[in-house]
Fold this protein.
Amino acid sequence: MKKLGFIGMGNMGRAIASGLVKGGAIAAEDVYAYAPHWDKLSDYCAPLGIHACHSAAEVVENCDAVLLAVKPYVIEGAIAEIRDLLSGKAVISIALGYDLDRLRPLLPDTARVQFIMPNTPAMVGAGVLLFQQESTLEADERAELMGKFAALGEVIELPGHLMGIGGAVSGCGPAFCAMVIEALSDAGVKYGLPRATAYRLASQTLAGTGRMQLETNQHPGAIKDGVCSPGGTTIRGVEALERAGLRAAMLDAVQAVMEKKV
Ligand SMILES: NC(=O)c1ccc[n+]([C@@H]2O[C@H](COP(=O)([O-])OP(=O)(O)OC[C@H]3O[C@@H](n4cnc5c(N)ncnc54)[C@H](OP(=O)(O)O)[C@@H]3O)[C@@H](O)[C@H]2O)c1
């Protein structure tokens, strides 16, 4: 895969394009992008050094792989405009719900397809990139793509039937984690921490706890136990969170996501 095109250059398209270019996974001159609002598109593309295109067709004509980074309700119309040009191309979808089975009927038979579910921490190279195991990319092309996306965070393969729940945890998770950061910070502010200090403490604590779990593979309960001395103070906070239903609230949040059909 030499040249990569983006159809749509919003939050996720920008996060992926800049992560790939800044991470050295692809040269800026090999990246092309189209979005309807030219000023916004060119303001973004110019500093990064990627090509801004006036049409989706111009992107597809210049690229051998095309990443669809538009909202799910736009994707069928966006594909219809360029359908024939996608013959023989690698087509990558990050649109929620548009996995291999749903995309193939919309594309020419010769298009090769990969569904990926990224998350917003990809912006800082700390994302989760879920790759659907079922794919019609060539094996070496898929391996190359996974290698490039490693510049954005951890690449994890999942079978198609788990992509929905995987996306609910890692794709929606940044919103849930950010709410925890905000709430923990509010508590700090209530007792006098300056706001910026409170955010820093809470964010670094969440990031550090996640990193510790990843690096030690400790059970999360053991990490919690490690902070709770008998008769101590932290266990009182743990009791308060249990009474407030933290675990049930998280289960309900993911269930609410899973019940929304795209
Ligand atoms: N955000 C996340 O956390 C996240 C996580 C995983 C997956 N995703 C998926 O990523 C996709 C993009 O999400 P986003 O958050 O980046 O959305 P977004 O910020 O709203 O960006 C959408 C982009 O699509 C462009 N666009 C709209 N209509 C178009 C058309 N007909 N042809 C070509 N481009 C068109 C928009 O251009 P203008 O701005 O010029 O109108 C904009 O650049 C979605 O399908 C979403 O499911 C998002």
